[in-house]
Amino acid sequence: xxxxxxxxxxxxxxxxxxxxxxxxxxxxxxxxxxxxxxxxxxxxxxxxxxxxxxxxxxxxxxxxxxxxxxxxxxxxxxxxxxxxxxxxxxxxxxxxxxxxxxxxxxxxxxxxxxxxxxxxxxxxxxxxxxxxxxxxxxxxxxxxxxxxxxxxxxxxxxxxxxxxxxxxxxxx
Length: 172
Fold this sequence. Notes:
Layout (H helix, E strand, L loop, with lengths): L1 H43 L3 H6 L3 H7 L8 E12 L3 E12 L2 E13 L3 E9 L12 H19 L16
Antiparallel strand pairs: 1-2, 2-3, 3-4
């Protein structure tokens, strides 16, 4: 009976350790994503002082001499690619609008823990085309066809003034 009791206590101890480690990792990932979201939100909405609070190193240096245009943030999607207790790399998709035009950007953001998580590097990347379940719906496919046809019409008629309305991200 004593042997079963000790085995049960040891099992509970290890379950507790695994739960603690798992929760600690989830809290770490959450704090990384929150810091990155606050930085991107401040950057997109033109809140320079708030962006500086979440930046360090070269990014902070650039922000100290920058003026930021204002846009409306539509959405942020993040994916922590790699991390440790003091460093993280996050892939980010940012959708925003300005002057009645919607746009999207994809970024690789690096953060360091220097008195809290701060952005130390941000680099624009191409749209990632990977993963499972990337099937395009019929409705989206029709929308893509319309935008592409509109783009081609603007190219044919040399309407370069309005061609940007058909573009997004790095193509803009």
